[in-house]
Amino acid sequence: MLTGTALNFVNHLLGGEAWARTRLQPFAGQTARLSLGALVIPVTITSNGLFERGEQSASAAVTIALPADAPVRALADRSSLLAAAHIAGSAKLAEALGFVFRNLRWDAEDDLARLIGDVAARRVLLGGRQFVQWHRQRAKNLARNVAEYLTEESPAIARRADIEHFCRAVDSVRDDCAHVENRMRIMGIR
Q1: Is the pTM value of this prediction over 0.90?
Q2: Is 17 left (phi over 0), alpha (psi -120 to 50) or beta?
Q3: Which string of b and e fits 16-48 if b means at least 16 CB within 10 Å?
Q4: Of 106, 96, 98, 92, which is closest to residue 24 (Cα–Cα)?
Q5: What's the mean pLDDT when you consider all of the chain?
Q6: Looking at the predicted structure, is the pLDDT value of residue 90 above 70?
Q7: 115 or 76, greater pLDDT
C-alpha cells in the first residue's frame, strides 16, 4: 500500500512536468529496482514516462540501493540522498533517473489551490513556512543556550579558545624544553 501511494505521488509530480516524462520515455519498458534495506521495489517506466509497479522477478536495467536513512535524507537534503545511493546497471537510465529526481519539485501551492482556492492556499503555505521557520529558530536558540551553559556556566565542555590557548602553551613548553636540552648538550651536561 505504501509503495502504491508513493508511486501515485511520484506519478502526480511527473504528470505536471512534461520535461521529466520526456526524459524518461526513451526508457519505456525498462525496470529499475529500488532497495531500502529489506524493502525492494521494482518500478517499470511506462511509454508515457510514468512509473508502474514492476514484477519482482523482472530483470532490472538499473539497481539503486538507498542508504538506511533515506526517508530522512529525502525530506532534509535530497542531494545527499542521491550521492549516498549505490547504483549498478545502465548508466544512461541511472543518469536520467538521477536528473529527474534531482530536479523534480512538488508545487504544493498549486495542488492546495485546487482544493481551497489560490489566496487561501498561498496563505496556508506562507503560514506553514513561518511556523517551520519559527520552530527552526527556536531549536537553534535552544542549541546555542545549551552550548553556552555547558561551556560557560557549568564547564563540562572546554571552549575552543581555551583549547587553543592550552595547545599553544604546551607547544611553548615543548619548545623551551627542546631549547634547554640543546643548550645542555652543547655544554656537555647530561
Answers
A1: no
A2: beta
A3: ebeebbebbeebeebbbbbbbeeeebbbbbbee
A4: 96
A5: 84
A6: yes
A7: 115
